[in-house]
Structures are given as structure tokens and as C-alpha cells.
Amino acid sequence: MSRLLEIQDLTLGFPDKAPLLERVSLHVDDGEAVALVGESGSGKSLTIRAALGLLPDRAQVSGRVSVRGLDTLTAGRQRLMDLRRKDASMIFQDPRAGINPVRTVGDFLGETLRFQGLSRTEAAQKSVAALEQVGLRRAKELTGQHPHQLSGGMLQRVMIAAALLNSPKLLLCDEPTTALDVTTQAGIVGLLREQQQARGMGMLFITHDLNLAASLCERVYVLRNGRVVEQGATQEVFLAPQQDYTRQLVNATPVIDLDKVPAPAVANGMPPLLTASGLSKRYELARGEILTALDDAGFSLPEGGSLGVVGESGSGKSTLARLVVALETATEGELTLGGNRRPQRRLAAAERKVLAKDVQIVFQDPYLSLDPRIPVGRAVADVFRLHQHQGRHEALASARALLGRVGIAEERCDALPRALSGGQRQRVALAKALAARPRLLVLDEATSALDVSVQAQVLDLVEELRDQFGLTILFVTHDLAVVSRLCDNVLVMHQGRIVEQGATARILEDPGEEYTRNLIGSRPRPLWDEEPATA
């Protein structure tokens, strides 16, 4: 068995900064799948980028990084390009960031193949074959489409096909399934495992999902603050961790625990806060085609309740959330909030301001919902000024107090969003939403891109804030373990329709629909059999 990747004492930093990586050592052998796990900021992506010579020019690096005998820290540009074309490939976390949005899928794949000397016709034929190999139907038709016409799961398969075009011996995967729903994730993981075994590739897989690492990889390295703190066979490390940090990661990994599902909210004779009846949303596409994103949805959410909305990508979850907060207008049906029926038209500015006092939304990516030019304290203060009519000084004081309640230290209130971690930005987004003092809080995949420890902290915070503020919660997510922890009722959506709904405990324990059973069965099963490691 040959050694494909060997990293020895890799230390990396920038001028006048503390090192980001300190004496990191790991290896990947031929045909072996190895996981690299740790929190955001632990140095996982820097480590994997060093393997392909993708480090910033200002980086100060020592140690040795060897891929098939080539030292990528000292190799010239041409030798690195040859390595990436012939021996090693990388799959990034966000497929949309890795492909030019104005180019077709066929152009994207064909460029790589033409570098290998293939003619345009040969490249087109091999592109179709590569898409079919990763399980995409109508592959020839897909080569003529642009990235925005594909779902996240489809586009990630395109990126995998691109990474495999040069038949690499080493495949580097940087969180390639983080924001995908469970069934799409299961398909991508199965595809990677199948391709790895069929081609005899070595694979280094970065993830914060320990269940996923356990299901895919034989060995694991645990990285914390730029240092490897634990390593070994995956089962040994996760079942009997030796380091407190590893135990914390294991214990923070969400699992479905029916004993901890919240009890349903009691209506006490009061009407529901939110009801939907016959709710549909259709979009007119090019050439007169009609896309039905939501079809005849009906449900109710009592005051103080928490409703989970689950399903695959494209099932209509986010469309439903956007209708609730009036970012979209329903094509048909009724939506009633607090007894007030929503008009079937786009709301005027004054109407939106009134609605925002009752309903707020927190999106998946907090960075996109915060103005990068405005300090986070002022961003929250602006909400107090708009909705609570506070003066500038009073609003800033209120903002600092609220940010403190969600775990943002006072000295961070003057920071710009880019200076905060992903978990801190999500806390700011929560504070911004709560500053309006809403009755209903909509969370649209608000924890799916966070690592397990930060996700656990944010979920703890949401539970605490729900109790403190008496919030009603609509939680859109693809993680059934999160639903079991936070939601007393659940809607299961498929292709725009609600296929099942009811008490969370009942549906998770005895689902009535085959689709729901598939969702539950697609989750990677914890190695610890849903019993986290003890200290």
C-alpha cells in the first residue's frame, strides 16, 4: 500500500499573527478514506488546501506536505497544475462558488477534458458519460444547462463528476455535504464511497458531522485550534475518546431522542397563531412552463408551539417559510396570522412594517442577512429604533443588552460581521430578529451550516429564548435530530405537498408514509447507537 498524502509538522501563519496550524501531521494511504474533524476555525480547510498548493501568497509555512512524492509547499506552479490535472482533485463545500454561473455544465466539464488533449466532440461525449456515472439522469440535456437551473444536490454531483474526470489517485473533500438534505447527503456519500472503492482512490474528508465521518472513513484526525489532538481508527476514537475535546464533539452531535421531544403546546381554547389553508405557490418559467413550488398546504400552529418543516431540497420548505414572512405572495389559498387574514397581493411598505413586529425570520447564512459595512451592535440598534421607536443612545444600549443575552460579548458589539465566526453571526441574526419582539420566529435552516458544537449552543439559545420571550417557532430544517429536540409537531413535505403531519414523537417513532421512513432511514446512524460518550 503506497502513501498518497503525507503531512509532517505543518505549521502555518501570517505575519504578526499567531500560527493557525501548529505541527500538524497526518497521512492518507492508497485506497483509504480518512476524516478530518473539528470546529469551525480549527484549521481543517487550511490543512487540506496545503495539499494542493492552494495557500495564500502571504502565508508563512514550514514542515512538509507530500502528494505522491511531490512536495507541494516548494513545487513550482507548473508542477502543481500537473498534479491537480492528473493525480489529485478537490471537492469544495459550496458547488455554486466553484462554477462560473454564466457557463453551462458542459462548458465547465469540457474545459478540464480539453486540457487533457481531447477534441470538443470527445470532451462532450466524456462529459455526458461522467454525469451518468455520478447518477444524474438526462445527462446530455444537463450539459446545456446553467448552474442556477440545478438543485444543490445535482450541482454537487456535477462537481464530483468534474473532480473524477482526471481519475485522481487522491480525492480531497472539503465539507461537500454540509448544507444538503439527508437523502441527498446519503446519495452523495454513497456515490463517493462507491467511486472511491471502484477506483482505489485515497480520500481525505473534512466534515463537522461525526456520524458522517463514522459512516464513510476508517481513520480520523481531530483538529482543535490548529493542532491534532486525537487520531486513530474511527470507531475507537468516537466510542472511547481520550480527549475532553473529542468527547465534547461526540456529546454535541444531535441524535434523535424520543424521550426529549417537547410536549405539544396547549391551546387553552385560544385560536391558533398561524393557520394555512389550501396554500399554493406557482411560478411561470420560460416557454410558458409552470413550476408548482407549493401545492394545497394546510396546517395550524398554536401560540407557544414549535413546528418543524422537513423534506428534501426542492420540497417547498423554504417557499412555505417565505410565504409566512410575506417575502412571497401565495398564488392560491389563505394564510392567517393572529386572526388577521393575509391579503392576496404584495404588501405595501407600511403593511410589511406592521407584519415585521409579529413575524421575523433567521436565514441559513447569517452573513448574507447582515450589512457587511455596519457594526453588529448598530445593526441590532437599528431594529430597536425602527420597531420600538427608541432614540439612538437608548437603542444602542438595548442592542448591547440583547447581544449580551445571546452570548455576544460587549467588546464584540462594534465589530463588523466579517470579524465574527459563523456561530457568532448567527447569534447576531437571532438578536436582530428578537429586537422586533415578534410573536412568531421563523428559522430557515438556521443551524445546518454550523459545526456540531456551535449548533448545539445555538439550539440551547433558541430553547432558552423561546421560554424567555414566549416565542412561537416555525423551524425549517433537513435534520430530524434537530426537529426531535426543538419541535413538538412536524410537517413532512415532498414535491411541494405536505405528505404527513402530526406530533413529532409519533411521526418519528411510527411514520405513516414511506417517504418519511426514507427520510429517517437516510440519516447516518451514530456509532454510539444514540448514546453519546460520557466523560
Automatic annotation (TrEMBL):
<feature type="domain" description="ABC transporter">
    <location>
        <begin position="274"/>
        <end position="520"/>
    </location>
</feature>
<comment type="similarity">
    <text>Belongs to the ABC transporter superfamily.</text>
</comment>
<dbReference type="GO" id="GO:0005524">
    <property type="term" value="F:ATP binding"/>
</dbReference>
<dbReference type="InterPro" id="IPR003593">
    <property type="entry name" value="AAA+_ATPase"/>
</dbReference>
<keyword id="KW-0813">Transport</keyword>
<dbReference type="InterPro" id="IPR050319">
    <property type="entry name" value="ABC_transp_ATP-bind"/>
</dbReference>
<dbReference type="InterPro" id="IPR027417">
    <property type="entry name" value="P-loop_NTPase"/>
</dbReference>
<keyword id="KW-0547">Nucleotide-binding</keyword>
<keyword id="KW-0067">ATP-binding</keyword>
<dbReference type="InterPro" id="IPR017871">
    <property type="entry name" value="ABC_transporter-like_CS"/>
</dbReference>
<protein>
    <submittedName>
        <fullName>ABC transporter ATP-binding protein</fullName>
    </submittedName>
</protein>
<feature type="domain" description="ABC transporter">
    <location>
        <begin position="5"/>
        <end position="250"/>
    </location>
</feature>
<dbReference type="InterPro" id="IPR013563">
    <property type="entry name" value="Oligopep_ABC_C"/>
</dbReference>
<dbReference type="InterPro" id="IPR003439">
    <property type="entry name" value="ABC_transporter-like_ATP-bd"/>
</dbReference>
<dbReference type="Pfam" id="PF00005">
    <property type="entry name" value="ABC_tran"/>
</dbReference>
<dbReference type="Pfam" id="PF08352">
    <property type="entry name" value="oligo_HPY"/>
</dbReference>
